[in-house]
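Q: What does the assembly look like in three dimensions?
Context provided by user:
Components: two
Sequences:
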Amino acid sequence: MGQPRVIIIGAGPAGVRCAETLVAAGLRPIVVDENRRDGGQIYRRQPDNFTRPYDKLYGTEAERAQALHASFDALRGKVDYMPETLAWNIFGGKLHVVRDQRSRSLPYDALVICSGATDRLMPVKGWHYAGTYSLGAAQIALKAQACSIGRRVVFMGTGPLLYLVASQYVKAGADVAAVLDTSPLMRRLAALPKLLARPAVLRNGLALVSYLKRAGVQVLTGITPVEITGSAEDGVRGVVIRDNRGHERSFECDAVGMGYHLRPETQLADLARCTFRFDHETRQWLPEVGEDGRTSVPGVYLAGDGMKVLGADAAEIGGRLAALAVLKDFKFMVSDDELQGLRAEQAKMDRFRRGLAQAFPWPAQQAAALPDDAVVCRCEVVTAGDLRRTVREMGAQEANRAKALCRVGMGRCQGRYCGHAGAEIIAHAAGVPLEQVGRLRGQAPVKPLSMAVREEVE
Amino acid sequence: MSALKADVIIVGGGIMGASSAFFLRQRGLSVILLERGLIGQQASGVNFGNTRRMGRPIEQLPLSNRSREIWLKFKELFGTDVELLLNGHLRAGFTPAHEERMVKYAEEAKSFGIGMQMLGTKTLHERFPYLAPEITTGCYAPHDGHANPRLAAPAIGRAAVRAGAQVFENTEMTSLEKDGGDFVATTADGRIFRAPVALVTAGAWGNRISTHFGEPVPMIAKSPQMCVTEPVPYAIGPTIGAIAETFEQVVYFRQVARGNIVIGGGGHEPADIDKRRAYVNPARTLYKLKSAPRVMPAFDHLHIIRVWGGIEGYMDDSRPAMGPSARVPGLFYAFGFSGEGFQLGPGVGEVMAELIATGATSTPIECYHIGRFATPVANAA
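A: Here is the predicted structure of the complete assembly.
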């Protein structure tokens, strides 16, 4: 047998470090990435004609970003790099990719999925008005295009990204009306022992908060979102919340950046038929992973935030670990010391991850409290009331059943935005544990597939 | 454990089982329906959704017409709007040979009230200007249409429950035996159900039960493969199917009122009935991307947002096993509809209820009798 054919999906921190480790062992992996340039979401590289310096773009993470970009630049010629390429399906030991309207199937012996994470979203009444973005989208607008999502922006949700994006906006000169966090301060204090697993990161996080306050931005914790006001014609006009004392307050703005920490992008793992398990800590279904990113499917590995949201530094470690797992499984010599060292570091990262999950919890109770007229599924315009009726009057107690009967999660995002909240609403209305509601079955394509795509004849 | 008794046990809660339960209740018989998963979750819920009659074998048209009558009063009977849209069905062809085929069928099926109209090139393109210029001939059935399969069987199931049927979902039957005069069904969780009559409506899984009663059928499980576009303004009207030279080139599509276009074709994928889930082969999605714009070039501007497939039982003569058992008194079958069952579903339920309640049916179904598969050896046994 020749060299194993390894495909890495994603050229973010996990994918780049994975490729680097495989190249060092003498392999030539294929790196498939949806973006035009490497770096992933967090270290997204700006277009060629943009000249913003690293410290402006990446703040405290400038060095890490620069190092990752340099590493990938050094891999040119040693990997088969396929940018602007969508991995849209996995079937029969082949990865199906599309670039320039051509579909190709790439056979693999090992597939390392480094698909990253996107915002975890909790609907709020009015979130379908133009001007409501995820935090990730707000960040992409800024990083890739040097654009703000609005003239006056409210950031609402919870998690470290809330503070990071808000401070990046302030730094870029945008008018940030408020930062509204649903997690109460007490939770963060309680999570401190776990967060101290990475003191430097904790310090950076605290610095962001004080930076925002010094810049005069209102930062409220323990809030409850009530509504995004606006109209179909003019979009977002403001945000109404209840503060931690129960007083209703409103903030004028023309854009909202929203997100409740992150969720792994798991459709590819699903299409590869990996087993999933319910994670009680974060109330979501995640692919089952064994040591070093091995999944339940031989030859399929996960690394980075697409496996579990551990953050960028851990993604770099995870990428290396998954590469070592591939090498080990294909009988290459692997240094046990290196493996042990990486695992020990990863354990620290995991402790910190649990701290974050505790400090910035998913506000499950908000799903249950959503008014009936709030849209849950934006693609198919399914309201919380529609979903509750499907449960109560049509007996749907399972996610796919509810989808079949009322279209929740059936639209072009395939439930990536509304799936978690939809499941919470079903569970609450049916009076069953969330776990029992199950998860939406993943179906290809991972993202909408142009019908002008033709199969490439080789 | 004491057994729950009824007049009829139905095994399998697809559209056949659900409508049989409903119509048996209408005739006053008590019904137990056992469904391993959820009502209409398998092929009944994930098929293309065609309610066409045109193109069906001539011998099937009386049954298909009977079913149509029920579809027309679906909401009234079952209490749910299942997005039935009767904007016609268009069969499109590319060659004079295709035209000949369509003319022949229209002639043969003339007396069944489908109202088929052959359309010449000019009329065809005037009425359906989005068709590709290569399409030169068409046969239009103005009263055919489509409905939403995700909603239909569950709606009939709920109506059956309201009518007094005892429907057990998530209930896996592990054995069905004839014990004296009664059929005894045992479930995985140890429950026991008895009835003097058993009706097997287990779709692609039906052969397991018929084989158990000495009546194996030549049926394989395959998965028709579907995909759907994003919603676009409603414009197409009829369901359209194009004649193709190979299975891979087959394509048919329908636009739902919301605007999405559901596309089927590209051949069938082998399916594993033990897995209970069909997977979509990307090659079959790509076949559709190639053949759909050959019928309607504007497809090239749309996107596929999702694909899916169901598990369907295909008989080697493409005809279902429908009617009484040839060997076991009290045992009835209605499965193996070979990819054509959705439109027939309500009619099959009504016919099976009639047959079970009265011992006969006014709709001709003799050619579907399972006895046609009996081998001399099986008969000797």
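Follow-up: Chain A has three domains: 6-118+263-356, 121-260, 366-437.
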